[in-house]
Amino acid sequence: MRKIAIAVLGVLLTGCLATVAWAQGDRGTSSITVKGKAVSVDYGRPSLKGRSTDDLLGQLPAGGFWRLGNNTSTTFKTDANLNFGGVDVPAGEYSIWMQKQDDGSWKLVFNKQHGQWGTQHDKSQDFASVPMEGSKAPESVDLVTITLSKMGGGGSLKVQWGTLVESASFKGA
Q1: CA 118: distance to chain centroid?
Q2: What kind and span of H or E run contains 41?
Q3: Where do the structural domains in the chain lie, given as residue ranges?
Q4: Stated pTM of the model
Q5: Rounded to an integer, what distance in angstroms lies between the CA atom of residue 31 and that of residue 163?
Q6: CA atoms 115, 123, 69, 75: torsion sign
Q7: What tens digit of pLDDT does each residue of 103-125 get?
Q8: Which H or E run includes 31?
């Protein structure tokens, strides 16, 4: 009887985990090493589904935050101390967001909380923000894509969705 109960619990647990994974949708990851230490990002990958980023993000007011994906917040983890254009980001795990500025540009925001649902941004937990450099993609990308790339003694974090391309460079501190 005990073996049957354990088997039933195993099946139920497997079903629950599959449901959670399905509800999360597509997830993406990217990782690099900086000075021999890991830097990674984990994020949800929503699809444009025929819409444009102007339709979806253009309505965001100045000062508004985008969670850089969908479902749970985008998690940035670094085992190295980093410097983004003069702003120090200590080794640790953070949620990252993009904040729209008055002129339509974006800032990359680091938040001390991570793992929360992506719509639950607690601005009081923000500790750093850095300007991003924007450009237009030659062709539209349907799924949000966040890429970490090595550059010299550091790297670059690039966000692409539709024709939106925003990036921020960093170096090992």
Answers
A1: 10
A2: strand 37-44
A3: 26-172
A4: 0.83
A5: 23
A6: negative
A7: 999 999 999 999 988 788 999 99
A8: strand 27-34
